[in-house]
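Final report, closing paragraph on structural work. Over the funding period we assembled a curated collection of sequence-structure pairs, and we close with a single example.
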Amino acid sequence: MTHKGLQDYSAAQLAALTSVLGTARIPVYEAGNTEPKLITVDELLASTGGLLDNNNTFTGNNDFTGDFSLDGTAVTATAEELNKLDDSLQTEDITVAGAIAIDKTNTNLDATAGTFAATLDVCPIDMIGKIKTIRMEVDNGDVTLALTNIQGGTAATTATFANVGEELILIGSAGGKWTVVKEFGVTLS
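Its predicted structure, as stored:
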């Protein structure tokens, strides 16, 4: 006999299982338990207040709105924080002299307009342990990066990106520094 859980039913199937008597039952698991509590589809769809209480009694409100946290405080996040794995939101293109973003994980250097210099500020606390890549995407002149807030690798003070594909891989470190993990073709001097 095959057992089906709530996750095994589509919305249409759940709607089809509802009845005045609510006789179709679906297992709902409480965290840490291996035995499900069987509830009717009508209980699942029509109840208010939460899925299961501490007594394994179904009390459900299934709209999942409101604040969710383990300690009762509200959880908030910006769209950028929620999309940290979306490369398009974590990538910037630098085309002129200036600062490289310290909160983006990927920086593309575009020297279409010619040679320029870039800077990288101190590593913020929320980037500690995170990888940052700086890569030459378009070459029509060299891009130099002052290594003021970068440690490791060699005792260099400047990184020069001269060709497409050259890349500097950094990891955010404590003390406001970025640590060199690897460089590919970048000239450190």
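Residues 11-17 form the longest helix (7 residues). The first strand starts at residue 25 and ends at 28. We thank the funder for supporting this effort.
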